[in-house]
Design brief:
Blueprint (H helix, E strand, L loop, with lengths): L5 E7 L32 E6 L7 H4 L2 E3 L19 E6 L2 E5 L5 E4 L6 E5 L30 E8 L5 E5 L5 H8 L17 E8 L2 E7 L26 E7 L9 H15 L1 H4 L3 E6 L6 H15 L5 E3 L8 H20 L15
Parallel strand pairs: 1-3, 2-4, 9-11, 9-12, 12-13, 13-14
Antiparallel strand pairs: 1-8, 2-7, 5-6, 5-8, 10-11
């Protein structure tokens, strides 16, 4: 199935039903009085976060979504039925914005979350509503109110704990296939990954994290080179970035340090907050480097790259070094989750004022 992470749709909630003018007609009852009912409200348009979906492709081909209008009021005190709501199922992580103003409306971050995108119009009043002591035979009614109509932009940002960053053919897809249940396309030519892939990494019983692989970046991605940097938004919700570097490129003229610096530059140019996320260096394809040269090549890369953070040496193809890496990742992700869930510590300056 094709991966679609952007879509434009038009939605329209149902109009309210009209009120009714009617009078009671019964034998031997000359002045029965008004009995016109109200109209029913129009149907709402709602969005549901469905964890079984991972793409917005359904909205690429079905752009118009309308709810039913409310039923009209009738005589004998009968009110119109409310119009049925429609629920649009969207992947968890979908951002919903107003296509005309760009205003953020909703973010679907919790599985099963239900939000109202457009409210149906209220029903009109029948003449029963206008009866009073001085107006015993009202002939007034009101039409139903129109439902809301909106043009929306849907943007999907995948929810993952860890994101893979690197040049094409750095071995990101091989790594995610080696440590998770993901099965991305792997080949010996650039840009085999054309859309993000998610994989669940099982570290132990009830111990796991979600890993995201995005298409590779190249120098000039911000100007549209390669696939551009449109997929970088899928890394904005991650807790950790793994910068995967090919330490043994096929072309000997290519310098891994120069390529790694180009990735960091593109990352910073795209978003300072993404650039400021915790980032680890993962030197891949060690199986293609002779044993007696590994230490020197790794040391030379780290020195020239001027890297001060964590460094991991792996071979995604043979899984060498992968186990220590995924255990370190899990400890980091678990620490981040605990920090987010910890209650705020009270200010010690006001500790004496707290009630016993």
């Amino acid at each position: 199935m094709k991966f679609v992470d952007e879509a434009l749709i038009d939605i329209a909630a149902g109009d309210g039903g009209n009120g009714c003018v009617s009078f009671r007609h019964e034998k031997h009852k000359e002045f029965g009085g008004p009995n016109g009912g109200d109209g029913g409200r129009g149907g709402h348009v709602q969005a549901l976060a469905d964890p079984s979906l991972n793409t917005l492709i359904d909205f690429r081909y079905a752009r118009r979504h309308e709810a039913r209008r409310g039923g009209h009021g009738m005589g004998s005190d009968m009110f119109g039925a409310a119009g049925s709501d429609i629920t649009l199922k969207m992947p968890v992580g979908t951002i919903i914005t107003d296509a005309e103003t760009g205003a953020l409306l909703h973010e679907l971050l919790t599985p099963g979350e239900l939000v109202t995108l457009a409210k149906g119009g209220d029903g009109g009043f029948g003449n029963l509503r206008f009866k009073s002591a001085i107006n015993r035979a009202p002939r007034q009614k009101t039409p139903g109110w129109p439902g809301e109509k909106k043009s929306l932009k849907l943007e999907l940002k995948v929810l993952a704990d860890v994101g893979l960053l690197g040049m094409p053919n750095a071995g990101k897809s091989t790594f995610i296939a080696a440590v998770s249940n993901a099965r991305p396309k792997i080949a010996d030519y650039p840009f085999t990954t054309l859309h993000p892939n998610l994989g669940v990494v099982r570290v132990g019983p009830e111990q796991s994290f979600v890993l995201a692989d995005i298409p590779g970046l190249i120098e000039g991605a911000s100007e549209g080179a390669g696939l551009g940097h449109q997929f970088l938004r899928h890394l904005q919700r991650t807790r950790l970035l793994l910068h995967v570097v090919d330490l043994a490129p096929f072309d000997a003229a290519q310098d891994p340090v120069t390529q790694a610096k180009a990735i960091v530059y593109e990352l910073k140019k795209y978003d300072d907050r993404l650039y400021g996320k915790p980032r680890w260096l993962v030197l891949n394809k060690l199986d293609m480097v002779p044993l007696d040269e590994r230490e020197a090549r790794v040391g030379d890369f780290v020195r020239r790259f001027q890297w001060k953070g964590p460094v991991f040496q792996i071979s995604a193809l043979t899984r060498e070094g992968c186990e220590p890496l995924i255990h370190a990742i899990f400890r980091h992700v678990q620490g981040e989750q605990r920090a987010e869930n910890e209650p705020a510590q009270p200010d010690p300056r006001f500790a004496g004022d707290a009630p016993a």
